[in-house]
Specification:
Number of helices: 8
CATH architecture of the largest domain: 2-Layer Sandwich
Strand content: 25-35%
CATH class of the largest domain: Alpha Beta
Helix content: 10-25%
Radius of gyration: 27 Å
Largest sheet: 6 strands, mixed
Number of domains: 4
Structural class: alpha+beta
CATH topology of the largest domain: Transcription Regulator spoIIAA
């Protein structure tokens, strides 16, 4: 199964499948026959096709494809497969995409369906229930001197984006957990680090639902603390970005669709759920959080705890300005590199046919590409100044061997010689006129 990713406009990712559509070969702009399609000398014209329930009806795709095929220059269409009660992994959706792809080819149009994991959230949650994204909300309050005080923490309502609009399930909270409550004192607005104590056991949960929590805090004169911070995690209906099975699950979806006559597939603006400026005024510091994320943070920082560092990042602490900045940098870099890893599961910039074979450990074992400019798989990277047709594979001894194909003999690029010196040149055959 071929797993290849193109970066496109607006952070959209296009995945090229191994059943590439063969477009009508318009070799000249001068023709006596009218065509709405531009010459193949130019980049393809791409359009978005938002599917509805009507498109899932028998032949429900034909009208749109007839109109696009006969009356527009579009030769690549991206079907958005986002439904309230169906997912891209469902057989019904797959079967209809198959029929639509076969019909689109007859119209000179290639389909690149959006088969992102966000359109299979139910399936992912059912298979990996412990790998859901969490939002950690930190809310501070001043304690009362002679009486207890209640503090409520509520999750963000109607958390959604372009994958969860309309009647499609939102990314709302499905569970809440009180992770920790800190008590501490302040001097001139700064937290005194020596005063910070875990007072979770001194507090009482008044009520707890999937999207809100109310906690009763002790009086300040009982423990010498002037302030308290409740740290509540809300589990969202969204796959954990740091989940250990996320990339494998996405690959499984791609493999499911890999035998269809598609021009590719789409992954549109990947990342965490949206966090809009209007959330800034909700009186809480918010962090993306999960058990897998906390584990990664600990490994990156030599054993530091993400939960306590979220408290430090959110509120600061006297004398810990540099430590806070370091924690923020670690957190931001961890988030950046993980999302790059997901998007660069395999990244390719090439023209034409691309094939990738991975070994049982997910490492590159073979690559064939026409017009290759750039390739990334984990730590393996190729970046060429000039597009080149190459084939690269490991031989029986596990050593790299490669072939370059061109019409004229050429110098082996330094980027390729850095991989191996075992390259052969293969002269390409000039096609007949």
């Amino acid at each position: 199964m071929l797993r290849v990713v193109f970066v496109f406009l607006f952070s959209t990712l296009l995945l090229i499948c191994n059943a590439q559509v063969k477009y009508p070969d318009i070799t000249s702009d001068e023709t006596n026959e009218f065509s709405s399609k531009i010459s193949n000398h130019y980049m393809p014209v791409i359009g978005v096709w938002v599917w509805t329930e009507n498109n899932l009806a028998p032949n429900g795709f034909k009208k749109n494809l007839d109109e696009a095929g006969d009356n527009s220059p579009v030769n690549l269409l991206v079907p958005f497969l986002r439904f309230p009660d169906k997912e891209v992994v469902d057989q019904e959706v797959y079967n209809q995409v198959k029929l639509a792809a076969e019909y689109a080819v007859k119209k000179g149009i290639g389909l690149l369906p959006d088969i992102d994991v966000r359109s299979a959230r139910r399936a992912f949650k059912n298979k990996y229930p412990g790998e859901q994204q969490e939002m950690l909300r930190l809310k501070e309050t001043r304690l009362l001197p002679d009486e207890t005080k209640e503090i409520s923490v509520v999750s963000i309502k109607d958390l959604n984006d372009h994958y969860s609009g309309g009647n499609i399930p939102k990314y709302n909270a499905t569970e809440s957990n009180v992770l920790r409550i800190y008590g501490y004192s302040k001097n001139n607005g700064e937290i005194l680090p020596a005063s910070v104590k875990d007072i979770t056991d001194l507090c009482e949960i008044v009520y707890e639902s999937k999207d809100s929590v109310c906690i009763r805090l002790p009086a300040s004169n009982e423990n010498q603390y002037s302030h308290a911070c409740a740290m509540i995690s809300f589990t969202l209906f969204y796959p954990d970005v740091f989940g250990s099975h996320l990339i494998d699950f996405q690959r499984e979806i791609i493999e499911q669709y890999g035998n269809l006559p598609l021009a590719g597939a789409c992954k549109d603006e990947w990342g965490f759920p949206p966090y809009y400026p209007r959330y800034y005024s909700e009186g809480a510091y918010d962090f993306w959080f999960s058990e897998h994320m906390a584990k990664e943070y600990s490994e990156r920082t030599g054993g530091r705890e993400l939960l306590s560092d979220c408290f430090l990042m959110g509120f600061g602490s006297k004398g810990k300005k540099t430590e806070r900045q370091v924690a923020i940098n670690h957190f931001m870099e961890m988030v950046r590199t993980r999302n790059v890893e997901i998007e660069n599961d395999v990244f390719v910039d090439a023209i034409g046919v691309v094939g990738v074979r991975l070994d049982e450990n997910g490492e590159l074992d073979a690559l064939v590409a026409s017009g290759l400019n750039e390739f990334t798989r984990g730590d393996f990277k190729i970046s060429l100044d000039k597009r080149t047709d190459i084939a690269l594979w490991r031989n029986g001894e596990g050593k790299w061997k490669g072939v370059i194909q061109a019409y004229k003999p050429m110098e082996i690029p330094d980027a390729l010689k850095a991989i191996t010196t075992d390259w052969e040149f293969l002269k390409a055959t000039v096609p007949p006129k």
